[in-house]
Amino acid sequence: MSETEPRVVLVTGGNRGIGRAIAEAFIAQGDRVAVTTRSGGAPEGALDVTCDITDPDAVEAAFTTVEAELGPVEVLVANAGITADTLVLRMSEDDWSRVVETNLTGSFRLAKRAAKGMLRRRRGRIIFISSVVGLLGSPGQVNYAASKAGLVGMARSLARELGSRSITANVVAPGYVDTDMTAVLTDEQKAAIKQQVPLQRYADPAEVAGAVTWLASDAGAYVTGAVIPVDGGLGMGH
C-alpha cells in the first residue's frame, strides 16, 4: 500500500460531521472513496452507498457494490455511530441494545467483511472511530461509552490476529468536535466543556481526519493496536 497509488477507501457514516471530513480528506488525496449512509448525502467525488450497518445483509450488499464499482476495500474507516443518552436507571434495554448494535456490533460486521479481501491481498488498514468518552466515561452515556471502549479491545485483537498479513487495526478517539451534535449545546455548556480541555477549544473535523489519513498512509504502516487521541488533551493519561 502506497501513498502514491489511489486506494479504495470505505467510510461509514460519511455524510456529515467527522465522517464527511474523513471522506473528503481521502478524496483530496486522490483515493477512490465510498461512503455508506442510511439516507444518502455523500460528499462530491464519493460513491454513495445506502447501508444500515445493523443489518448483516445490507453490509454484505454494500461491500459487493463497492467492490464492483471501485475494487476491493483497502482502507476501512468504521465511523457510523449513534447515541441514546440517559441515566442508567432510566436506560431501557432498547437504549442499550440499539447503541451497542450500531457502534460495536456494526463495526465488527464491517471489519470482518473487510478483512476477507484484505487477507487475500495481504495488506489493509482498519480504523475505528471511538471517543474520549470510551476512555473517560460520561454520566448518562453508559451505553455509548461501553460501545466505544469495546472498539479498543476489538482493534487490538484484530491487530494481533491480522498483523502477519500486513493489516493494521487502530482506533482514533476524538474529544469534543465542532459538528452538528455539539452545535445544539448552549453557550454555557460549550464554555464549561472548553474549560475541561487543555487546548481550550473544540476540534475541527479536519483535525480528526488528519489522524485517520496518517494511520492509512505509508508513514503509519508500523502503527497497529494504537489508540490515537484527538481530544485537545482532555483524556491524557488514558
From TrEMBL:
Record-linked InterPro entries: KR_dom (IPR057326), NAD(P)-bd_dom_sf (IPR036291), Sc_DH/Rdtase_CS (IPR020904), SDR_fam (IPR002347)
Coiled coil: none
SMART domains, alphabetized: PKS_KR (SM00822)
Keyword vocabulary terms for this entry: Oxidoreductase
A Pfam family per the record: adh_short_C2
Domain Ketoreductase, chain residue ranges per copy: 7-180
Keyword Oxidoreductase annotated: yes
PROSITE patterns in UniProt: ADH_SHORT
Family: Belongs to the short-chain dehydrogenases/reductases (SDR) family.
Name listed for the protein in its UniProt record: 3-oxoacyl-[acyl-carrier-protein] reductase
